[in-house]
Amino acid sequence: MTQADQSKESAVTHVQTIEPLGQRNVGEIAANMAGATGVFRRFGIDFCCHGDVPLDEAAQARGIEIELLHGALLELDGTADASAIPDGTAELTDHIVARYHEVHRRQVPELIMLSRRVEQVHAGKPGVPAGLADVLQHALGELEVHMRKEELILFPAMRRQGAGPLDGPIAQMREDHVDHGALLERMAELTGDFTVPEGGCGTWRALYAGAMQFRDDLIEHIHIENNILFPRFESRAAS
């Protein structure tokens, strides 16, 4: 048996020995099965803000054929992106700040500038994302407050040796994440799911390409916190 076959068999066995795949929450699957986040993005499954939903329930809500989704997950070899996320809490929080916080701080102001340009130059044209710049401006403010709370209060508390449950601040961060998810949904609505109209200019294409990257980064950011980092410091994990 090849190493790839062994990895695939290990991933499948891991899923089956815990509990039936369809009964496991999507957030748990995303956190423990390498490559699952890519499958969920492909099928439109929300694994970050609503990661507490069982897989089959999430599939039914999206009108997805359950067997098709199961098959895509079971085809994973268990090695994709396995080393991308550090294990230690200190290293993981540093990774979140460097890979996501600082990247968002660069991404969103640029998107605001591009959006204002598109909205002004193409005002009144079919498909123009009127109001997108204001949504992005709001997102920037919300994200900055959220990230500063994590950097100055929550993450240092997590790094302290022997830190106990941090249910209160984590609950607030989870609520913020739901709000962030709503902002992403609003962005998708305004942009026709980031579809540039025929003949759209280079600025318009750059705006939507950047907005999609921001969306993907923020979804992954929320997933790592909700499904990997936060459970370490919630009372259910400590009991």
UniProtKB/TrEMBL annotation:
<feature type="domain" description="Hemerythrin-like">
    <location>
        <begin position="95"/>
        <end position="232"/>
    </location>
</feature>
<dbReference type="GO" id="GO:0046872">
    <property type="term" value="F:metal ion binding"/>
</dbReference>
<keyword id="KW-0963">Cytoplasm</keyword>
<dbReference type="Pfam" id="PF04405">
    <property type="entry name" value="ScdA_N"/>
</dbReference>
<dbReference type="GO" id="GO:0005737">
    <property type="term" value="C:cytoplasm"/>
</dbReference>
<dbReference type="InterPro" id="IPR012312">
    <property type="entry name" value="Hemerythrin-like"/>
</dbReference>
<dbReference type="Pfam" id="PF01814">
    <property type="entry name" value="Hemerythrin"/>
</dbReference>
<protein>
    <submittedName>
        <fullName>Iron-sulfur cluster repair di-iron protein</fullName>
    </submittedName>
</protein>
<keyword id="KW-0408">Iron</keyword>
<keyword id="KW-0479">Metal-binding</keyword>
<dbReference type="InterPro" id="IPR019903">
    <property type="entry name" value="RIC_family"/>
</dbReference>
